[in-house]
Amino acid sequence: MTARSAQREGVESFNAPEQVNQRRYEALRAYYVDGLSYADAGARFGYTRWTMVNLVRDYRAGELELFAPPRRPGPPPGTAPAKEKARGRVVELRRQGLSVYEISARLSAAGTPLNRTSVGQILAEEGFGRLLRHPEAEASVSPATAGRDTHLPRAATLDFTTWPARVHSRMAGLLLAIPDLVALDLPALAKQAGYPGTRVVPATSWLLSLLALKLTATRRVSHVDDLLLVDPAASLLAGLATLP
């Protein structure tokens, strides 16, 4: 008896493949390359003649996908290893009263950077609500942070008689857009377009609130609370006590 060559070991996986697509491939190869008939190619791999006819028909029509398409190296699409790795730390820092901005900064300082969007998504998934801050980036590192009042006044038309003579703002540049908005007659455009408003917040104020986000390149999913909700320039632009 002649011993099987080591080079031939594993031939069973080609003659009797267990994976469905490999079995289809080998059957089609026997038909196309080895020249076997439908019946003979099918019999070799456990298919009937009509099954082979259907396989060949689907292959010719481009409806038979035998191989997974190649993909770029790295984690599969839809996965976020860095986000999952930081999840526990994000929750821990939020329980200390830190904002999205501060959590992202702490993670970067620790060598495990995660952007504010991902931090916000983790907090939302874990059931945490928004934590509103004053404009100063370092304001909420105080131990007293957790006890701060996070309730803003309800949105309403701005009452100028309640405003102090001087206010601090990091976004006074927003007001430079006012002359152009006056020239465009934004209220008339909003009315003509049928943009909705309410008794509390006029349509023009809604549009100006959205415009404040665009003019400051602020994404709604990022730290909007620190950047716009408590900055008087944004309120002044929209004509509201607090942005909706």
Compact summary:
The chain has 244 residues and is mainly alpha-helical. The protein has 3 domains: 11-60, no CATH class; 81-147, no CATH class; 160-238, no CATH class.
Name its key features:
46% helix; 12 helices; mainly alpha; 244 residues
Please give the structural blueprint.
Blueprint: H1 12-15, H2 20-32, H3 38-45, H4 49-60, H5 81-95, H6 100-109, H7 116-125, H8 178-184, H9 186-193, H10 203-215, H11 224-229, H12 232-238
Protein model, in words:
The protein is mainly alpha-helical and 244 residues long. It has 3 domains: 11-60, no CATH class; 81-147, no CATH class; 160-238, no CATH class. It is built from 12 helices and no strands. The protein has helices spanning 12-15, 20-32, 38-45, 49-60, 81-95, 100-109, 116-125, 178-184, 186-193, 203-215, 224-229, 232-238. The radius of gyration is 32 Å and the shape is elongated. It starts with 11 loop residues before the first helix and ends in a 6-residue tail after the last helix.
